[in-house]
Specification:
The complex is a heterodimer of chains A (about 100) and B (about 500). Chain A has helices at about 5-15, 20-40, 75-80; strands at about 85, 85-90. Chain A has about 100 residues and is mainly alpha-helical. Classes of the chains: A mainly alpha (about 100), B alpha/beta (about 500).
Chain lengths: ~100, ~500
C-alpha cells in the first residue's frame, strides 16, 4: 500500500471520516508498517482455493410473516440526538 | 472462605438452600467495588441501585423456592452487550450516552436464569485492541500488578473476576479478546464455537468472527455459565440450530485416552521460554491424567495475523458505517450539511485505533485492492480452516500458548500498532476457523504474572475442552490474584459465612 497522505485522504473520504492534518500524518506512518507486514500474503500460492466468507453454511433465515416486535417508534426516536415531530432531524439537503 | 472467593456453582447452591441471601451477596460485591474499582477500572458503569432492587426481588422468589438456575448470583456484562435502560458505551465517545431500547439475547438469557447485573465492564473501544488501553474511559489495570495491562479487549471482564469484583462475567472474542485478558489476569475464559451463542444485541465489530463467552475463576463455573449462554436464537441469522449437551455435569469425567496435539507453529521463535515451559507443564498434567500427546502442524496459521486484520477491519469498516450522527450516538455540532455531519460526527466520535481499523478495512475493500487484499485473505482463511480440520482428524484437542508474553507495562506497546497486533499470533486463527477455545491458568512467570494455556477444539466440542481444562486445573490449581486475596476491613462490610 502506498500510504501517503493523499491515499489516506482518499480512503478517509470513502469511509466518511474527517481526519485532522496530524491524524493524516500519523495514519500514513502506521498503515505503511502494517501494510508492509501484510505483503507476506502476496507470496502465498492460494491456487484454486475458494474464498471463505463464513465458517457456517449461511442461508437466509426465514420466518412466518407475523409481526413479532412491538411498536418501538418512540423508544427508538428517544435515543436519537435530534428529532422533530416524530422524525429524525438532519441538516438541510434540498435548497 | 470469603463470599467473593466462592465459585458460582457453590453460590447458586447456597442461595437455593437459603444459607445465603441474594442481597447480602450483592452488597458484598458492591462493597468490594468501592475499594477496588478505582484501582482496576474494570467497570464503566456500576448499577448499584438496580442490582440491589433486583436482589430484593430475587430473594422473594428464592424464599418461595422459585427462580432460575443461577437465581441471586451477581455478574456483569462487557459494555458492548445491549442492556435496556442501562447505557452501553462500547468504551467509545461515539456511544458515551447511548441507552439501548432493548436487551441482547444473552442479557435476556441471564435475566431468565435469575442473575443480578452489577454493571457494564470496561473494554477496548468497539472491542478493537489487545491490551484494554484503547478505552475512552481509561485503561483497565491488572489486578496482579497495577502497572501492567489487563489484556483486551475484554479487559474489564477478566479483571473483574480476577479482582473478586464479580463471580463471573461475559466478554466477547473476535480475535482473542476473551482469551488474552483471561491469560493476563489468571482466570478461565472460553471462546465458544462460532454460532453457539447468539450475537443479537452484541454491538457488531466483525460479524463473521465475533462470539460471546464466559470469564470465570474456575473451569466448573465456566461450564455452568456456558450452559446458560449457548443455544439457538432465531433473532441471529448465524445462530447454529444444534442441541447443546449440558457441559457442567460432564466436566469431571476425565481425559483418559484423549488425543492432544501440539502444533509446531505455536511453539516457535518469539515465544517466551517461561510460557513455553508452563504450557508443556499443562500438557504433562493431561498426560498424567491419561491423555496421549503428539506433534502436528497447521502451517497456514502462520499467516493468521495478516488475514485476520484484513478481514476483521474490512467487516468493521462496513459495520461501523452505521454511526452517522442521526439515529443514535454522538452527533457533531459543527456540521452544516449532510456530508459534514457524517464526516465530523465520525471524526469526533471514534478513537485512534478504531479509525486505524476503518481506514485499513476501507482500503482493503476499495476498488483496485478488493481482490488483492480482501479476497486473498478470504482464501487464506479457508486454508487455515482446512489445516485445523486436518489436524482434528488425528487429535481431539490442540494445546498452545495464548500469548507470546505475559502482561506488559501500560503504555509499552501503544505507539506501535503492528507490535500490538503481533501479540495476537496464537489466538486469531481460532476465530478465522470458527473453533471453540478455552484458556486455563497454568502458572506464573518470574515476575509473578499469570500464564495461560489455550485448548482448541473441533466445532461444538466445548464439553471436551472443559474436561481437559478441568484436568489441568485439578493438577496445577487455580490462580488467586493478590487483589482477590485482599479482604475488606470488617467495618467496610465484608461478610463471612
Amino acid at each position: 500500500m502506498q500510504a501517503d497522505e493523499k491515499t489516506i485522504s482518499y480512503v478517509a473520504n470513502l469511509a466518511a471520516l474527517h481526519l485532522t492534518q496530524e491524524e493524516k500524518e500519523h495514519y500514513s506512518r502506521d498503515l505503511v508498517a502494517i501494510m508492509n507486514y501484510m505483503e507476506e500474503l502476496m507470496a502465498i500460492d492460494t491456487g484454486d482455493v475458494q474464498p471463505m466468507e463464513h465458517v457456517l453454511s449461511i442461508r437466509n433465515a426465514l420466518r412466518e410473516d407475523v409481526a413479532s416486535n412491538t411498536d418501538m417508534r418512540d423508544k427508538l426516536l428517544a435515543v436519537a440526538p435530534k428529532t422533530e415531530e416524530g422524525c429524525y432531524l438532519v441538516p438541510n439537503v434540498v435548497e | 472462605m470469603e463470599l467473593h472467593q466462592m465459585p458460582v456453582y457453590v453460590l447458586a447452591e447456597k442461595l437455593k438452600k437459603k444459607e445465603l441471601g441474594a442481597r447480602e451477596l450483592t452488597q458484598a460485591y458492591l462493597n468490594r467495588m468501592q475499594t477496588f474499582q478505582p484501582e482496576v477500572n474494570a467497570f464503566i458503569t456500576v448499577t448499584e441501585e438496580k442490582a440491589l432492587a433486583k436482589a430484593e426481588a430475587l430473594q422473594k422468589m428464592l424464599d418461595n423456592d422459585q427462580g432460575g438456575s443461577l437465581a441471586g448470583v451477581p455478574m456483569a456484562f462487557k459494555d458492548n452487550m445491549c442492556t435496556e435502560g442501562v447505557r452501553t458505551t462500547c468504551a467509545s465517545h461515539m456511544l458515551e450516552n447511548f441507552i439501548p431500547p432493548y436487551n441482547a439475547t444473552v442479557v435476556e438469557r441471564f435475566q431468565s436464569a435469575g442473575t443480578i447485573s452489577l454493571g457494564k465492564l470496561n473494554m477496548d473501544e468497539f472491542a478493537m485492541g489487545s491490551s484494554n488501553e484503547n478505552s475512552f474511559f481509561g485503561p483497565v489495570r491488572n489486578p496482579w500488578n497495577g502497572e501492567k495491562v489487563s489484556g483486551g479487549s475484554s479487559g474489564g471482564s477478566a479483571a473483574a473476576v480476577s479482582a473478586g469484583l464479580a463471580p463471573f462475567t461475559l466478554g466477547s472474542d473476535t480475535g482473542g479478546s476473551i482469551r488474552l485478558p483471561a491469560a493476563f489476569c489468571g482466570v478461565v475464559g472460553m471462546k465458544p464455537t462460532y454460532g453457539a451463542v447468539s450475537r443479537f444485541g452484541l454491538v457488531a465489530f466483525a460479524s463473521s468472527l465475533d462470539q460471546i463467552g464466559p470469564l470465570t475463576s474456575n473451569v466448573k463455573d465456566c461450564a455452568l455459565v456456558l450452559d446458560t449462554l449457548m443455544g439457538y436464537d432465531p433473532k441471529d441469522s448465524t445462530s447454529a440450530n444444534v442441541v447443546h449437551e449440558a457441559c457442567f455435569p460432564a466436566v469431571t469425567q476425565g481425559v483418559q485416552g484423549m488425543k492432544i496435539g501440539l502444533a509446531i507453529e505455536y511453539f516457535g521463535a518469539g515465544l517466551n521460554e517461561e510460557i513455553k515451559a508452563s504450557v508443556y507443564g499443562a500438557v504433562k498434567a493431561l498426560e498424567n491424567a491419561g491423555a496421549i500427546s503428539g506433534e502436528c502442524s497447521v502451517p497456514a496459521t502462520e499467516y493468521g495475523i495478516s488475514a485476520y486484520y484484513l478481514l476483521s477491519s474490512a467487516e468493521a469498516s462496513a459495520n461501523l458505517a452505521r454511526y452517522d450522527g442521526i439515529r443514535y450516538g454522538h452527533r457533531s455540532e459543527a456540521a452544516t450539511d449532510m456530508q459534514e455531519l457524517y464526516r465530523f460526527t465520525r471524526g469526533e466520535g471514534f478513537g485512534r485505533e478504531v479509525k486505524n481499523r476503518i481506514l485499513l478495512g476501507t482500503h482493503a475493500l476499495s476498488s483496485g485492492y478488493h481482490d488483492a487484499l480482501y479476497v486473498k485473505a478470504l482464501k487464506v482463511r479457508r486454508m487455515i480452516h482446512d489445516d485445523f480440520a486436518k489436524a482434528f482428524e488425528t487429535y481431539d484437542i490442540l494445546v498452545s500458548p495464548v500469548s507470546p508474553t505475559t502482561a506488559y507495562k501500560i503504555g509499552e506497546k501503544t505507539a506501535d500498532p503492528l507490535q500490538m497486533y503481533l501479540g495476537d499470533v496464537y489466538t486469531v486463527a481460532v476465530n478465522l476457523a470458527g473453533l471453540p477455545a478455552l484458556v486455563v491458568p497454568c502458572g506464573v512467570d518470574a515476575q509473578g504474572m499469570p500464564i495461560g494455556v489455550q485448548l482448541i477444539g473441533k466445532p461444538f466440542s466445548e464439553k471436551k475442552l472443559l474436561q481437559a481444562g478441568y484436568a489441568i486445573e485439578a493438577a496445577l490449581g487455580q490462580l488467586v490474584s493478590p487483589m482477590a486475596s485482599q479482604l475488606l476491613k470488617q467495618a467496610e462490610g465484608s461478610a463471612r459465612i
